[in-house]
Protein: BMC domain-containing protein
Organism: Caldanaerobius fijiensis DSM 17918
Amino acid sequence: MPNEALGMIETRGLTAAIEAADAMVKAADVVLVGTEKIGSGLVTVFIRGDVAAVKAATEVGAQVAQGLGEVVAVHVIPRPHAEIEDILPRFNKKPDDNTSAQVNPKQDVK
């Protein structure tokens, strides 16, 4: 996705982030790249598209999210450097082998 703008909305609360993501992809020709749960209830949603579409989408997404929770930050990077791709979360990334959770069945203790 070279030469595409990167848009970010950070909210306090998952519901507000989901609503923002939904509003953004409906409002403009943008692609939802991924989300990042930062902790303390903070969630960031990332989108890509041309600069005008990303600006319009983030404005709409922020308005919708503000009605449900707290919008912490909204930002658009018009032409992010190619190396930024390496740190963006993706929906289709496979989890690392070390991070996969394994549930052990409960054992009876006698």
About this structure: The two ends are 59 Å apart (CA to CA).
